[in-house]
Amino acid sequence: MKLSTMSTVLFRRKTFEGGAHLESKMKRCLTVLDVMFIAIGHMIGAGIYVLTGSVVRNQAGPAIILSFIFSGFAALLSAFSYAEFGARFPRAGSAYTYSYVGLGEIWAFVVGWTVPLEYMIGNAAVARSWSAYFDNLVQKRVANWTLETVGQLSDGKGFFAHYPDFLAFFLLILVAIAVAMGSKFSANVNTSFVVLNLAVLAFVIICGLSYADFSLWSGTYPDGRSKFFPYGFGGAISGASTCFFAFIGFEALATAGEEAKNPHRTIPLATFSSLAIISVIYLLMGASLTLMVPYDEVDAEAAFAAAFQARGANVAMIIMSIGALAGMLNNLVTGSFALPRAVYAMADDGLIFGWFGVINSRTKTPLNATIVFTILNALLALIFDLQALVDFLSIGTLLAYSMVSVCVLILRHQQELKDGSNTEYDNGGTLKSWVPFRRYWQTPGMSIRVAVVMLIFGYVCLALPFKTGIISNFGGIILLIIGAIFALSGFFFILGHEQNKSEASYKVPFVPFVPSLGLLINVFMMVFLNAMTWIRLFVWLAIGVVIYLFYGVRHSKEGLRSGNTAVVTELQNGIDNRKASK
Fold first, then answer.
1. Where is the Cationic amino acid transporter C-terminal domain positioned along the sequence (predicted)?
2. What CATH number corresponds to the domain at position 116?
């Protein structure tokens, strides 16, 4: 098969004609407040009740404050890109749709295939944490009953949970039933929980800080470790990589783009408002926890409730536990809302089984996708350990956010039709006169892609010495030099391209600086994730690529619409012939 044939199929990009991208089979009924609260609701549960205790105990200690600052800043940089794409292309797929428009079909599939997994793992982790908080309130009666009646799954030290969590399993089923009843109904439920939870969090912050012991932050331990940095500065960076999942809320927000009343205005406003509110809450909650109890005494599963209990504040512990249950239920509502919509977007484009793209005529929701992926989600919560789930949370989010930043760099430096013209293009993507070897870059759009690849390769080389601890060794210095050369060359090559004159209700400021900086931070955090996280991701992607090659390639609506059916057939025949030869 010709390389050009494969490239035509794998890198074809999604296009929208005129204003057609505003049309939707789903109901546009969500206001700015509805969409903003979807993001806040999704971020509160994961960031505070699931991640905080685990990151404090195992990765960062009190330096979780810096972890939240780093990940929040990275999220802000990514939020600029999400806001522009959400205003331009208000569709349910969010990062998947944006990658389809900017990078091509295969990259869109990679992003689209990881996002549902991220939601499933996030929902499962929150459901297990909800179960742990509830069990803590009833003196472990649920755990004891399950162990006595059903028995244990494992010793609790591996990937599988100590016992099957039936409470988490049925909780996810019930939440999905509520979400399947319709977008406006689930938005109203979510808004009620958000208001309640914000009130509880305000109480918890004030009460927690009243027990503040600043000696837990200052000085050193007998072994010489800093009390604020018990895991070193690298621990704060590693914690930021995990905490980044806490900011997946505006990914969930973007999936609501197809149901927002005025998405061009709603998505940017809701994105920045929710991010500002949640960042302040994370910092205050992280500070109150680490000032109440030593980091190594934090309960990884029910951190705040156990901290108040240790301080003898039983009333505050009960209020906190009730708030935690409400907050995590809030998170499950938004996560269960976003999950089937991420699947629906891919199915609607023909890249995965079309049955998932069916919209129910009564509820106007993707009911088939809701049913199947809720069952998968509930099974994850039933048998897997909370810590194992938390370790895998952030990689899909970081990958999606990185792709969106890359898409901004590419789309802002490609040709666009001039206003009022169907044939004449502006100078977007052309090289400026000072760029050397300009005549060797004749293929439209190729040079900007080369520049972005150089930039990413440079970032990886810069991050590796910090991750491996060889920054002062000869090999580390060589990597830093190579990384600096590629990163700077790639960045200045991007600067050497003209930007197009496309119009949008919101555009990322200071391009290419903002998306390039956001991409740098995301790449660093991805490099700091552990090896098993990457292995699990590649296994999941391998499954997805098989589905794409044997189903998505043939059924892609973009391929059929663009008239390259023959090219698709040739690609599929090549796959079938190789399979037969084996």
1. 506-556
2. 1.20.1740.10
Instruction: Report pLDDT digits (tens) over 180-224.
Output: 877 677 777 778 888 888 888 898 899 999 999 999 999 899 989
> CA–CA separation, 146 vs 139, rounded Å?
14
pLDDT digits (tens, 9 = 90+) for 530-551: 888 888 888 889 999 999 989 9
User: For residues 548, 535, 239 and 304, what is the CA-based torsion angle, rounded to 10 degrees?
Assistant: 80
Mean pLDDT of the chain: 83
On whether residue 391 sits in a domain, the answer given is yes
> Does residue 186 lie within any of the structural domains?
yes
Q: List, in sequence order, the alpha helices (H) in 293-313.
A: 303-310
Burial class from Cβ neighbours inside 10 Å (0-12, 13-18, 19+) for residue 551 reads middle
| Of 224, 291, 265, 372, residue with least CA distance to 61 | 291
**Total domain count, the chain:** 1
Selection from 13-22, 242-251, 290-299, 398-407 with the highest mean pLDDT: 290-299
Contact 268, 103 (CB under 8 A): no
Q: What is the pTM of this model?
A: 0.78
Angle between helices 394-411 and 232-243 (to 10 degrees): 80
**pLDDT category of residue 18 using cuts at 50, 70 and 90:** very low
For residue 218, the enclosing domain spans 3-15+44-409
Q: Cis bond leading into 512, ω under 30°?
A: yes
CA–CA separation, 337 and 34 (whole Å): 13
CA distance linking residue 318 with residue 423, whole number of Å: 67
| Residue 307 is assigned to a structural domain of this protein | yes
Find, among 1, 100, 97, 96, the residue nearest to 568 by Cα.
Answer: 1
Burial of 437 from C-beta contacts in 10 A (0-12 / 13-18 / 19+): exposed
| pLDDT one-digit tens code per residue, 69-98 | 988 888 888 888 888 877 777 665 577 888
Q: Give the pair of three-digit tokens for residue 111.
A: 């992003």
**85 CB neighbour count, 10 Å cutoff:** 27
Residue 156: count of CB within 10 angstroms of its CB: 12
To which residue do tokens 């009130």 refer?
199
